[in-house]
Amino acid sequence: MKSLYYNNKRIATLLVAVLLSFALPAMADTPVPVVPKGKGVKCVEPTDVMRKRHFEFILHQRDATMHEGIRTPQHSLAQCLNCHVPKAEAGQERVRYGSDEHFCSSCHNYAGVTIDCFECHNDGPTGQPLELTGAEGRPTPLAQPLDLVDEAVRVATREEEE
Amino acid sequence: MSKDVNATRRKFLGQAAALTGLSVAPGVFLVDLAHGKPADEPVSAKNRWGMLIDTNKCAKDCNACVTACQQENGWGSNEVNSRPDQQAQWIRKVNLKHKATGATYSLPMLCQHCETPPCADVCPTGASFRRADGIVLVDKHICIGCRYCMMACPYKARSFIHEVLQDQSVNAPRGKGTVESCTLCVHRVDRDGENAVPACAEACNEEGHAAFVFGDLNDPDSRLSQTLKKFGSRQIRADLGLNPGIHYKGI
Amino acid sequence: MNHYDYQEIEGRSGGYWAILLALVGLMAVAGYGWYLMEHEGHWITGMSNQIVWGTPHVFAIFLIVAASGALNVASIASVFGKYQYKPLARLSGLLAICLLAGGLTVLVLDLGRPERLVVAMTYYNFKSIFAWNIILYNGFFAIVAVYLWTMMQHSLGKYSKPVGFFAFLWRLILTTGTGSIFGFLVARQGYDAAIMAPLFIAMSFSFGLAIFILLLMGLYNGTRRPLGDLAIRRLKNLLGVFIAGVLYFVLAFHLTNLYATEHHGVEAFILRDGGIYTTLFWWVQIVLGSLVPLALLYHPSWGKNRKLIGLAALLVIIGGLAQVYVIVIGGQAYPLVIFPGYEASSTFTEGVVAPYSPSWPEVMLGLGGVAVALFMVLFAVKVLKFLPISLADNMVDPYHKSGAADTASA
Fold first, then answer.
1. C98 phi-psi bin (left φ>0, alpha ψ -120 to 50, beta other)
2. Which residues of B touch A71 (CB under 8 A)?
3. Which domain holds residue B70?
4. Do A103 and A129 fall within a single domain?
5. What domains appear along chain C, each with residue ranges and CATH number?
6. Do A24 and A37 sit in the same domain of this protein?
7. Which has more confidence, C306 or A10?
8. What are phi and psi for residue A65, nearest 5 degrees?
């Protein structure tokens, strides 16, 4: 039973990889999202945690703030934008959600995942970034392309080893 | 505040507090100074926020509370396509003339933050709700824009956003297709507690009218409760039995 | 009891395709109107923060109300045991489902955030009559579908009576729910009356049957299947009773309101000073939509004329739309009484009748809902056996002797 589960997992991984390789034909020019670097040295959670779970944090914070008035800055959407979206340069239009240069849409455009946060929320910085100096975060990778195929395989094989 | 908060959380709280000038060192709160609740503590029914508006002090041609609300919450100037009757009206100045006596009054109308809000009763998804501390809000994340709450509100306190918006205020996220109303400056209340001054009240004070008193209706010692007790007040459409948190004096 | 032979309509004629094409065209224009509303926001409509429910709601509520009424013919057959209505029962169930689908399409597409329909299905506030209605509407689809199944599959025939009874109860609750959407609005002078629920039930009987009669005549005319006077006369007499029923509740509603001094303002507005609303009320709803059809249906010679019966049904539909318009829009246009005893003025149409003029996307969206309903009916009768091959008098009632039909009543 267990091996069947793992086999399924492996097949699924393979399938994802194959599908993605169809979607991204020329491997040499594979378009990968260029995620803009945020301010500061680290994010509020380790990067791999943020990649996989940022929506959980934001959703949880959303309900906590809305209904219970909990306004801790760690998982606040406004704080995400304060660090990750640069202020407009003088005489220039600020980068907007929807553009590939906007932190959120750089990835969401790539993955084709629609979010409606910014129909109500401001899509730019509205305050000062949090300054994180403690040991709780890991350095944010510098505009490191996200390789989803690699990521999928890595996650699957790691779980298999465990 | 519980004592087992981890170091991480304490640090963030510390920074939040430092921003508002409420702490002397990370993790150390001078709560008594601010009376604000810690940022990670949920609101509770031990408070019920409300206001008293003294119509005798409200000047007929003064619009400061409305402008301040627009400034604070970012409405009133960014709806460029909407007709006047489609634009947001979180707070509006109403001029009254008594039909029998001819006496005239001026007062601001805003969400009355009812104890039993009809908007929350009729909302199909629960997006309209009354927070434990009495503030009536719209959870725009689950508002489907059916406008039934607007039909139910006896005070015309709600607005529907008729067009696409950008560059909203961080204090009040708002966008096309959802319903909104006065939040009693909930962001200020969460930060400053009973020392909070909503933007409308602040502007009124600055104008020298001081027609607003904000406070905790549940705290018998609050300035609001004391003033209400001493001078009495009335609630608008009190016959509906909704027990609004906004009281008026002078009409 | 008689056995009826049901058969799909051929649906190959140029006329059939032309009608379908016209309906698709209507839906396309409606879809474009909706796209504009959804893309731009509601600023392009006549709706405002004062008139929050506009023309789409008029159509949606009319269709939803008519949907539950359309089921009546089937209920009369299986719940009240009038076997003469049995051959009409399938079409009745079908029409009920289609009208509801059309109405809900409009209602959903007019939401500020229609893409969040799933939120409406997953977050429930059980204190809200709206939330209850979502359950009632979905349940109606399911129950009527099962009801149709029991009618159409011979082996399940024995269940059709209990299922029909359940469907009848459900539809009464559903229309009560729809009426209560307005009845529960304590702050609005134009609504806030428990009589809204029974009024809506009476309206549903009348609107649903009027649509049913027109559709039946249209379908049998178009397919050249025989449709005897017996079936038509029963239905038209019933329609007359329902029109009178609506008039009674309208009368009771306004008389009770007139008794209470605090409601004099809104009554004067609707009945005397309301401009378009007064015109719609007296001329379209009462005269054209009620009195004229009553005269046409009960007149000794006009009442035997198919064309005039059809005209009467059409007038009932037009009058019904006017009635819903007066209730929905007129009720909102009349200013809220926020400060009793005071004259109020503000930047937000305080104490002033709110203006409203529908924009084309709104009207088209509403008509699109009608098109959806009709398209569904015309498609369904082509693929499934909804219509008896013959509704000639001897098929409808084997014991029928010519000339006896006029005495039929509900």
1. alpha
2. 16, 39, 187, 190-191
3. 49-249
4. yes
5. 6-400 (1.20.1630.10)
6. no
7. C306
8. -70, -45
> Do B232 and B142 belong to one domain?
yes
DSSP string computed for C66-109: HHHHHTHHHHHHHTS--GGGGGGHHHHHHHHHHHHHHHHHHHHH
Residue C53 CA to residue C57 CA, distance in Å, equals 6
Task: Walk along chain C (410 residues) and give the pLDDT tens digit of each residue.
Answer: 446 789 999 888 999 999 999 999 999 999 999 999 999 999 999 999 999 999 999 999 999 999 999 999 999 998 888 888 999 999 999 999 999 999 999 999 999 999 999 998 899 999 999 999 999 999 999 999 999 999 998 898 889 899 999 999 999 999 999 999 988 888 888 888 889 999 999 999 999 999 999 999 999 999 999 999 989 999 999 999 999 999 999 999 999 999 888 889 999 999 999 999 999 999 999 999 999 999 999 999 999 999 999 999 999 999 999 999 999 999 999 999 999 999 999 888 788 999 999 999 999 999 999 999 999 999 999 999 999 999 988 777 777 665 444 444 33
* Claim to verify: residue A103 and residue A158 sit in the same structural domain: no
Mean pLDDT of B54-83: 95
CA distance C376 to B123: 31
Number of structural domains, chain B?
2
Residue in chain B nearest C41 by alpha carbon? B163
**A contacts of B165 (beta carbons < 8 Å):** 119-120
Q: In this structure, what are the phi and psi dihedrals at residue C344, rounded to the nearest 5 degrees?
A: -115, 145
* Contact yes or no for B146 and C346 at CB 8 A: no
Whether B115 has its CB under 8 Å from any CB of chain C: the answer is no
Domain extent at residue A85:
33-145
Query: B133: number of CA atoms within 13 Å, CB side?
Result: 23
**Same-domain pairing of A21 and A66:** no
| Candidate from A62, A64, A122 with C-beta closest to B170 | A122
Contact of B153 with chain C, judged by CB distance below 8 Å, is answered with yes
B:4-23 residues touching chain A, CB 8 A cutoff: 7-9, 11-13, 15-16, 19
Question: Are residues A127 and A47 both part of a single domain?
Answer: yes
The verdict on A49 and A11 lying in the same domain is no
Nearest to B139 among A67, A121, A131 (CB): A67
Cβ under 8 Å to C: B residues 16-45:
none
Residues B195 and B118 in one domain: yes
DSSP string, C227-268: B-HHHHHHHHHHHHHHHHHHHHHHHHHHHHHHHSGGGHHHHH
Give per-residue pLDDT as tens, B206-222: 999 999 999 999 999 99
φ, ψ at C394 (rounded to 5°): -70, -20
Is C351 an interface residue toward B (CB < 8 Å)?
no
- Are A9 and A81 members of one domain? no
